[in-house]
Amino acid sequence: MLTRREEIVQLLTERESSLQAIANHFRTDLKEILEDVQHVEQTIRPKKLMRKPAACKSCGFPFKERNRIKTPSKCPRCRKEWIQPALFRIE
Questions:
Q1: What is the pLDDT of residues 30-81, one digit of tens each?
Q2: Model confidence, pTM
Q3: At what angle do helices 4-14 and 30-43 cross, to 10 degrees?
Q4: In whole angstroms, what is the distance from residue 72 CA to residue 85 CA?
Q5: Which residues pair with 49 in a beta bridge?
Q6: Taking the domains of the chain in order of start, what are their residue ranges?
Q7: In whole angstroms, how far apart are CA 68 and each of 18, 20, 54?
Q8: Which of 15, 31, 52, 68 pairs as cysteine with 87 (C-beta 3.0–4.6 A)?
């Protein structure tokens, strides 16, 4: 039987996914998954956690330089809260 973190590694190796989709898969809250993904990022070496950056759905602003895993709350350009979450995968 795999731990939740091992299952997250397996899931992200098979396909890219958002943190919310992972939380829904495990029926847990986003905060727990956020902690798990941060831990996974440190322990999967030599593989890497790749991320497709979050983007504003309104103006298209990409959050490319954001280092945090959590989805931003507002767009700095248009100030709207309609944000497409980052997608993660393991390569």
A1: 999 999 999 999 999 899 999 999 999 999 999 998 888 888 999 999 999 9
A2: 0.85
A3: 80
A4: 8
A5: 90
A6: 4-90
A7: 14, 15, 11
A8: 52
